[in-house]
Design goal:
Blueprint (H helix, E strand, L loop, with lengths): L3 E12 L4 E11 L4 E5 L5 H6 L5 H18 L12 H11 L8 E10 L5 H13 L13 H15 L3 H6 L3 E8 L5 E9 L3 E8 L5 H17 L1 H7 L1 E8 L7 H11 L5 E5 L3 H14 L2
Parallel strand pairs: 7-8, 8-9
Antiparallel strand pairs: 1-2, 1-4, 2-3, 5-6, 6-7
Helix pairs in contact: 5-10, 7-9
Length: 291
């Protein structure tokens, strides 16, 4: 017979009348391994945001009390001999950890599961993620938007030469290059540089959340480049597009579709994110060679 373990979720009943219940902890019982584990969130900020009058101090006191008792019980291996069914576990929780009463904190139903790994720490981490990841603070991740890609390019320029500012002063590199098609149709490019042709730099991040957003953004730029195609041929413009890949692997195929859309108009060059630094070097090489 395979080993089992039991678990019960600690719930905060904000309103018994409205039935508002939030999971705030998990008790894991490993009878064969003679171990209890009580998991609870370190941060309660999101709970406080939802319920400003939450008795945070009281809840934290319960957390500490339950955790302390669990540590004590783990020093008593004899108690695990009777964990043969969920009913006994319910009685054990009520007598040793938290009595069943009308208070806001209550352990829920005791569930039984097969022990799918001997790595108890792995099980604890998985249950913590399943029930308590909501409370983890947001991780600040650098946003890879259009501005991020343009900054990468500019940083590559200034890192390589002290003379880059002079190129801007001489207008050989220009910020906010404008093409006036008509009075109503005005197109601005973040940066332009010249070495015989005028290279119009457009950062285009596809680090988006939805496939529709990726295709929509690519299609909009396709329309812009197609409209300017004849003007580009007449004025020797080149559209250099700095593109950023989505982080989500499930969106990679839509990113590939976006690249295909962007390359259909004439005089469009795609520079993917890993090639931006090389493109910075190429820009300076071309500008200084033609100085």
């Amino acid at each position: 017979m395979k080993d089992i373990f039991l678990h019960s979720v600690l719930q905060y009943h904000h309103s018994q009348v409205l039935g508002e219940v939030l999971n705030v902890g998990v008790l894991l019982i490993f009878p064969t391994q003679k171990r209890l584990a009580f998991l609870y969130p370190e941060y309660l900020f999101r709970l406080k945001t939802a319920y400003p009058h939450l008795p945070e101090r009281v809840i934290r006191t319960y957390f500490k009390g339950i955790n302390r008792r669990v540590e004590q019980l783990n020093q008593q291996p004899e108690i695990f001999a009777n964990f043969i069914n969920a009913n006994y576990a319910i009685q054990f929780i009520a007598s040793e950890l938290l009595p069943e009463d009308s208070s806001a904190l209550q352990f829920g139903k005791v569930n039984t599961a097969l022990l799918y790994t001997e790595d108890l720490e792995k099980i604890e981490k998985q249950y913590h993620h399943t029930y308590l990841s909501l409370y983890e603070p947001y991780q600040e991740v650098e946003k890879k938007d259009d501005a991020f890609l343009l900054k990468q390019y500019k940083d590559g320029l200034f890192r390589r030469s002290e003379s880059v500012q002079r190129l801007f002063d001489e207008k050989r590199i220009q910020n906010d290059f404008v093409i006036n098609v008509t009075e109503e149709e005005v197109f601005k490019f973040d940066l332009a540089w010249q070495n015989g042709s005028t290279n119009l730099v457009t950062p285009l991040s596809f680090d988006l959340q939805r496939k529709e957003s990726i295709i929509r953004k690519a299609t909009f730029q396709f329309g812009k480049f197609t409209l300017l195609e004849e003007i580009a041929l007449q004025n020797n413009y080149q559209f250099d597009v700095l593109v950023g890949k989505p982080r989500k692997s499930e969106l990679f195929k839509y990113y590939d579709k976006a690249l295909d859309i962007l390359q259909r108009p004439k005089r469009v060059a795609i520079i993917e994110e890993e090639g931006i630094d090389r493109y910075s070097a190429k820009t300076l090489q071309a500008l200084f060679f033609h100085a």
